[in-house]
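This is your field. Pick holes in the following sequence-structure pair:
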Amino acid sequence: MKPVYTDSAVTEKEAKARYALPENIMMENAAAALERALDETDSGNKDKFALILCGGGNNGGDGLALARRIQGKIECAVCLFAESKTQGAKLQKLAAQKNGVKFLEFSETLLTKLSSDKSKHLIIFDCIFGTGFHGELPPQIHSAFLSINKTECTKIACDIPSGIGKDGNIASYDENGNPLAFRADITITMGALKTALYTDFAKDFTGHIISAPLGISDALFEECAEPDAYILERTDMILPERAKKSAHKGMFGHTVSVLGEKAGAGIIAADAALHFGSGFVSVFQSGLCKSAFKIPCTLMDAESFPPNANALILGSGLGRSAKAFDFAEKRIIPFIFAMKNPACVIDADMFYYPELLPLLDKLNENKKVQVILTPHPKELSSVLSLCAITGFDALKQRFDAARAFAARFPNLVLIAKGAITYIAHGKNIFIADTGSPALAKAGSGDVLAGLCAALLAQNYGAPEAAKTAVIAHGLASKMQKASYALTPLSLIKNLEKLQ
């Protein structure tokens, strides 16, 4: 896991004060990181041309330092979108000028000329705003980004793509109503990873994110402030491999999936649980479904709750009718509280259950519960409303909303699903960026619910089950050759390829 910070400026300010880091050294290290990215850019057999877009602050100073460093080695030019304002940026501009760096006025004509030169590989660096930006892009930069984003070239952002606010949201839009920021292939973020880089809105603009040191080791830098969250990596996934040779199915738990008005969703969740290691998987039919469903032979059809079941999936396809909620209230919820150590995944339709707040309050009171909730943004909005957690937009402020939920229910685990997924438990938030657009299809969430339940059945704690399930779910989605062709069944099939 890698630490990530909401306000990295605090971290950098503390690092400067604690370790006496001069600003020019930090700027030089930032420029060196950009230079490494430039050197590592594959240009085929073409010469490189670096067009460096600079603003008036220290982010612009990083770009000016880069220009000075590569002048004479790689052909380059600087386009200033504002006069240098900070002392460090002014010194870097002077040094670049004295070293013969070209300063050009950005225009459509210049961009067309550079991009149409087939003898050169164009690399554009965004060093305009960096962290701390908020509001809409100025007209000149707005227009420039419309053209740059359509241009075939390599694009590298310094610290954070310009146009992304420090909260990770984007206030500018293109002519089609789509968010507009500098669309980077690579983002070199300085000193610390930032939560602003890990939002649904930012994901289309950050490209590959690389963290670069500013002059001290990561270990020392991370001492300067408490992380706000942690980025999950593949190595944080602990698959339920069966290492013990002498084994029987009873050792790997018994998962129950409740079938409601849309029974197919519950069957998908049950199938995912079976494929992720649960020793037994039963489906409990409610009689709510109007269509006849054939239960796969690999699943057990339960007319009553198996007394030895140790994990439950509730909500996948349950339905939102009064009849569905009445069934859950009278038949399912009592079973949860009758379990010795309640372990369940609450999903989908249960996020509209009118009595959700008292249910969560009661579960949260039991320190032994292992409960995971898996809402997507619209469902999370309903959860926040029912639980009287106010002041948060479930799409634009999902990170803060997840943190507020975890503070209200510290013993429960929330998986706030999205292009970027947040896992919140107590004071800890984990960020997962392993998913793909292939998951934007009905049934994908039911698979995740099944994976979580399977791990709970196998005695994972809820936080560990959530982390492993989310990472596995995302990685399995990327194994589909055609992203549009992913189905819940192929997603489940891909689980066997994980290592």
